[in-house]
Amino acid sequence: MFIRFLFGAFLALSLAGGAQAGTIQDFIDGLDPSDSFFDFRNAAIYGDCANLNSCSKVETNAEGRGVTISTDTANRQLYRDNKDGFGIKGNENDEIDSDEVLTVAFDGGWQPTFLGLTDLFLPNDGGADGEEAIVRGFRNNALVYELRLLGQFDLGVGNGERIFDLPGLPVDFLEFHSVENPNLTFFQLDGISVGQSNDEYSVTFIAGVAVDAPEPGVLALMGFGLLGLGLMRRRRG
User: Fold this and answer.
1) Contact partners, residue 50, CB within 8 Å, separation at least 6
2) Burial class of residue 30 in the structure, from the number of CB atoms within 10 Å of its CB (0-12 exposed, 13-18 middle, 19+ buried)
3) Cα(37)–Cα(68) distance, rounded to whole angstroms?
4) What is the pLDDT of residue 92?
5) Model pLDDT, residue 117
C-alpha cells in the first residue's frame, strides 16, 4: 500500500501499512465489543440507500455516529447489496469505476484505522500488482493523505476481499476512486469490444475511532500555553 501524506503541501511518498489476512466477516467478528465500525452490508441500516444519489444514516456500531454516502454527480445513483456494501451504478453496475467517485462523510469527523474492500482482484492487464483503489482522506476540505491500495487474488479469500490498515488520522470524509487502464480493452462473449479495462471495487466497511482532533488554531494555542509554562518554570528556577 502506497501512502502519501499531505499537510498543505506534498511531504513524502513511502511504502507503508499493509493488508490483514482472512475474510471481512472474520475480521469484524474479531473486533472488541468497544470497537467502532461502519458495516455497509447491514441492510437494517443501509438497505434503502440503493438508487439514491446521497444517503445519510446513523451507525449503531459506531457510537451512533452519523454518516453520509454519496456519488460525485446528481445523475449517478448508489448501488448497495448485503455482500459487497456500496458501489455506484454505471459502467460496472455494482462497483466504483474509473470515472466515478464515492464519498463517505462522517458527522463530526472520524479516525479510520481499517478499511474493507471487495472485488479488488488481480489487474485486468495481468501485471503483478492487483487492481488499484485510490482512497483520499480530507480534513477541513484539505487533503490529508492519499492511499493506493492494491488487490490480490492469492490470499485464499473469495470475492476479492481485502482489509487494509489506514493511518488513523482524523478526517471529515473519504473519497474512493479507481484507476483506468487506457491502453486495454475488454470484450463481451461475442468478441465485440465494449470499452476500456478498468480497476473496480466496492466499499464494505470502515473501522476507526469517533474522536475529533483539535483544530489547527486550538493546537497553536496549546503550543503557546506550553511555551508560556516552560518560560515560567525557567524564571522560577
Assistant:
1) 77, 78, 79, 80, 81
2) exposed
3) 14
4) 67
5) 92
Q: Which grid cell is 154?
A: 492469492
pTM of the predicted structure, to 2 decimals = 0.76
Q: pLDDT tier at 221 (50, 70, 90 boundaries)?
A: very low
Cell of 221: 494555542
Number of domains in the chain: 1
Domain of 143 in residue numbering reads as 2-236
Q: What is the 3-state secondary structure (H, E, C) of 82-121?
A: CCCEEEECCCCCCCECCCCCEEEEEEEEEEEEEEEEECCC
Asked whether the beta carbons of 120 and 131 are under 8 A apart, the reply is yes
Q: Range with the lowest mean pLDDT among 20-34, 116-130, 156-170, 197-211?
A: 116-130
